[in-house]
Amino acid sequence: MKRNIRFLLEYDGSRYYGWAKQPDQEMTIQGKMEQLLARITGMESVEVIGAGRTDAGVHARGMVCNAHLETDLPVDELRSLCNQYLPDDICVLEVKEASPRFHARYLATGKTYRYTCCGGPLKPVFERKYVWTIPAEWHPDLNAMREAAAFLTGTHDFASFCANPRVKKSTVRTVDSIEIAQHGPFLTLTYHGDGFLQHMVRILTGTLMECGIGWRTPSSIPELIEARDRKQAGMTAPASGLCLMSVDYN
Amino acid sequence: MKRNIRFLLEYDGSRYYGWAKQPDQEMTIQGKMEQLLARITGMESVEVIGAGRTDAGVHARGMVCNAHLETDLPVDELRSLCNQYLPDDICVLEVKEASPRFHARYLATGKTYRYTCCGGPLKPVFERKYVWTIPAEWHPDLNAMREAAAFLTGTHDFASFCANPRVKKSTVRTVDSIEIAQHGPFLTLTYHGDGFLQHMVRILTGTLMECGIGWRTPSSIPELIEARDRKQAGMTAPASGLCLMSVDYN
Questions:
Q1: H or E stretch covering A225
Q2: I need a surface site. Which of A4, A50, B24, B59 has the fewest CB within 10 A?
Q3: Which member of A11, A79, A122 has the closest CB to residue B125?
């Protein structure tokens, strides 16, 4: 009988075309995991189910995925083998036995994403691949950003903040909280919600940044939500600044 | 008249063949700085004097250098121009007017280097280029390392810890302090001294690690110093874990 195994992963997305496997594209996290688990277990093919899809260049400190595996290996040995063979920009933090019905995508009840910007006159040499380096002349006003964030918090139709205009399913999501904090030159936006549409965190971040630097006003946010039109929202912040921090399950 | 300009630099050494310029090797920090300053000032050639040479792959958070420049540009504008044209893994933190006699190498009275190791079963995904990832089965004993470090502190002939066996100048140096600390999986060794020989910090770190994991005893250190023989010291720890933190001047 196959066991259902749950994994907690960390990865530096810089070199990858995102989570989701693609034909003719070797460099995806899901693809690397499926290949590796097939190799370790000797199974012909393995399907790895992720909690969500991270875009090309997006990082994760807490991606959850599961796979049904034919193997007798103890979970600790599975973790060691994964870390031995995975490239050094992907790490399996935890491996656990899950109930047969555990499904990393369907059962996820919430997600935390953190977006990190770096401002000021100096370039972030050591953090450059994990931030959005904003122009030195931008001096985002945190109060304006927080005021705008308050309008975005709650249950809304986020169609204006979705990269895919032909999405068929509901674009209603609940964003419980958006915390905005400054630590030296680093400005972090931490989002918690029940789920996020394609590029949603990056478009929210770009829009909040535009409020921070005065290109739009916080009070314009309600009509922007109302419009359900991607073209009216702000820029898509770059992938490098985004990191999936954790996924919730009941 | 030429002005003597002093620079404070930060760089990620991963992509570079070290500080010192080399014929037929584009990727050196000194080379990048000299090229850039010639371009900015319109001078035919510029000599940049560094406080010391960092090896290929070694990082810096506080390298000091100086150059005699023919330019009227204010120091802040010089800094902006440098940061605009330098690759994103080198940053000029400060630019100052220096006295005509300031010399970044001759007048340096002390240096601080930090070496960072990462142990434990998990790979450091986001810090992997800035640490030495030691094997999971190594469990360094900090007390043994500190005991060994106490023997190394002080004024000694460090010939056993010098990569260059044909060095003609004195190999006597004073190491004031070696602080060893653990933060989660990261083990840091912070060295302060009046100067360091070629690979000296990396060989000291390799030797201290060997004491930590029981391959040699702390009490064997005095005779190792006495031997003045590189072959009797420990391994050379990898460049990636090393960072020049600061340079002292009176």
A1: helix A221-227
A2: B24
A3: A11
The stretch B74-101 carries a mean pLDDT of 96
Residue in the structure block whose two tokens are 């770190």: B205
The DSSP letter of residue B180 is: E
Q: How far apart are CA B109 and CA B249, in angstroms?
A: 5
**Span A58-65, average pLDDT:** 98
Are B18 and B56 spatial neighbours (Cβ–Cβ below 8 Å)? yes
* Averaged pLDDT, A80-105: 96
ipTM of the complex as predicted: 0.89
Residues of B with CB under 8 A from a CB of A: 10-12, 59, 79-80, 83, 88-91, 93, 121-126, 128, 130, 133, 136
Instruction: List, for residues B50-87, the tens digit of each pLDDT value.
Output: 999 999 999 999 999 999 999 999 999 999 999 999 99
- Per-residue HEC secondary structure of B15-66 comes to HCCCCCCECCECCCHHHHHHHHHHHHHCCCCCCCEECCCCCCCCEEEEEEEE
Tell me the pLDDT tens digit for each residue of B1-60. Answer: 799 999 999 999 999 999 999 988 999 999 999 999 999 999 999 999 999 999 999 999
The pLDDT value recorded for residue A137 is 92
The alpha carbon of residue A127 is apart from the nearest alpha carbon of chain B, in Å, by 9
**Under 8 Å between Cβ of A246 and A111:** yes
Helix (H) or strand (E) holding B112: strand B108-118
CA nearest A54: which of A190, A248, A249, A247? A247
pTM: 0.91
Q: Which residues of A touch B130 (CB under 8 A)?
A: 126
Q: What is the DSSP string of B120-168?
A: SSS--TTTGGGSEE--TT----HHHHHHHHHHHSEEEE-GGG-S-TT--
Nearest to A67 by CA among A53, A80, A50, A87: A50
Helix (H/G/I), strand (E/B), else coil: A219: helix
> Which pairs from B42-48 meet CB under 8 Å and 24+ separation?
B42/B70, B43/B69, B43/B70, B43/B71, B48/B7
d(CA B178, CA B152): 8
Q: How many helices (H) and strands (E) does chain A have?
A: 5, 10
Q: What is the DSSP letter of A54?
A: P
pLDDT-derived band at A168, boundaries 50, 70, 90: confident
Who's near A78: CB < 8 A, 6+ residues apart?
Answer: A5, A40, A71, A95
Q: Which residues contact B45 (CB under 8 A, 6 or more apart)?
A: B34, B38
User: Does residue B245 carry a pLDDT above 90?
Assistant: yes
pLDDT tens, residue by residue, B128-158: 999 999 999 999 999 999 999 999 999 999 9
- How many Cβ atoms sit within 10 Å of the Cβ of residue B129? 19
